[in-house]
Amino acid sequence: MSLQFATDTNALPLYIIEKDALGDFLNSLPVMQRVWVETSGFTGAAGSVVVLPGEGGAPAGAIVGYGSVATRARGRFHVAAVVTKLPEASWKIATDLPQDDLEEAALGWLLATYRYDRYASQSAPKARLVTPDRIDGARIEAIAAGEALTRDLINTPASDMGPQELEEATQNLANQHGATLAVTRGDDLHAANLPMIHTVGRASDRAPRLLDMSWGDSGPQLVLVGKGVCFDTGGLNLKPGGSMGLMKKDMGGSAATLGLAHMIMALRLKLRLRVLIPAVENSVSANAFRPQDILTSRKGLTVEINNTDAEGRLVLADALTLADEENPDLIISMATLTGAARVAVGPDLVPFYTDSNATAASLAQSADRVRDPLWRMPFHDPYEAMIEPGIADLDNAPKGGFAGSITAALFLRRFVSDDQPYIHFDMYGWQPSAAPARPKGGVGQATRAVLDALPDLLGLE
Predict the structure, then answer these.
(1) Among 202, 206, 274, 313, which one carries the catalytic annotation?
(2) What is the Cα–Cα distance from 67 to 326, expressed in whole angstroms?
(3) d(Cα 254, Cα 275) in Å, to the nearest integer?
(4) How open is the CA angle 166-139-84, to the nearest 5 degrees?
(5) Which pLDDT value is given to residue 115?
(6) Which pLDDT score is estimated for 334?
(7) Which PROSITE patterns match (predicted)?
(8) Residue boundaries of the structural domains of the chain
(9) Residue 239: active-site member
(10) Residues with Cβ within 8 Å of residue 423, at least 6 apart in sequence
(11) Is the separation of the CB atoms in 330 and 345 below 8 Å?
């Protein structure tokens, strides 16, 4: 699906007006249009719209309600809410918005045109937006395309998005940008010393694999590690049916890393990118790994399995160890890792972990600027004892359930060096109900904030 701006030079004006400024704006209109708006009951509420009549009844423009600062703070992408309400035409923003608001409006418009139509046709909005003045249209289109890739991958059911299909999607992305992809599959994972990836995925007849994509030959090195559990039954600790319903999205971390990778490569950022995706299914069969098994990781740390449904951290651990061996400038892991994160902050906020206050501040500023909400959580060292079972170096599922997102993050941190810059995101990857620019279904999270922060995090020009 192509999410692009229109190039029509005869676009209709789109006025984005705050509620308190509506009266003054209406006084600037011709009498006919002012009376039309007043009698329509339009108040300027955020996300509302009224079309202005022209000669012969044809549209002459439209007013988008921008609400107030207080009401806008309770949501985002308010302009995107009107895309499906406007008649077919090309539109041009005719209001001098602050730069961040203008970029949000432009991106939100493109994202509002996204439709997942692989299995059933869906009508797309017919209103088109001309690239706004002061906007880098190519950058916004690259971000929208990366987000669309993430959504497509998450929305695809596991019947059509197993490890092989995830490999094919990664290969397609590599081909698009001139990147290289190396794949280690099945029993070869043992020879490559990636034992926990093999162990988690061996029960499925769809072979587990590690996808290793590289791009760029100069600049600082960034490694993205994405959880690619294409379906999670819970293994022998089988999930109840209600908890298994959305497990096609358990590869949301890998989908996010691929979407972010597209943005980075399309924008030709001056860095060396590596993407590592352990792609597996956590299935049930006679050779599935068991509770109380003790696994030896690539790093040599032993892990006691106290719940086979805590498998994401196992496959990420081997991939993080591999990433750490190159001493990159930054490692970022993205994963739909814990239900505890959802209990703590809900589906819209993404908890992230870093030991660097400067990194946290940079991410928080970018998250606010690009409307991609994040919330810092602590690598709380006193909880380290909770992931140490005694019989092995680590416990993959500490009893009691306290601080589940934190203990999972602490587990992952054990597989990177103490001085290695590292950020972990514990995302949801799913929009539970439709919102402006975000239809119900798979959604990218944290990627736009990371992209915005990369120049600061890596010292890019």
Answers:
(1) 313
(2) 50
(3) 9
(4) 80
(5) 96
(6) 98
(7) CYTOSOL_AP (PS00631)
(8) 12-135, 140-458
(9) yes
(10) 330, 331, 332, 333, 352, 353, 354, 359, 363
(11) no
Evaluated on CA atoms 169, 171, 173, 176, the torsion sign reads negative
What is the rounded average pLDDT for all residues in the chain? 97
**Active-site residue, selected from the candidate residues 139, 239, 369, 376:** 239
Q: What is the pTM of this model?
A: 0.97
Rounded distance, CA 444 to CA 173, Å? Answer: 17
User: Cβ atoms within 10 A of the Cβ of 419, count?
Assistant: 8
The architecture that CATH gives domain 140-458 is 3-Layer(aba) Sandwich (3.40)
Q: What is the pLDDT of residues 104-154, one digit of tens each?
A: 999 999 999 999 999 999 998 999 999 999 999 999 999 999 999 999 999
Question: Architecture of domain 12-135 in CATH?
Answer: 3-Layer(aba) Sandwich (3.40)
**Does the active-site annotation cover 115?**
no
260 Cβ contact partners less than 8 Å away, ≥ 6 residues apart:
146, 224, 334, 444, 447, 450, 451
Instruction: Say if CB 275 and CB 258 are below 8 A apart.
Output: yes
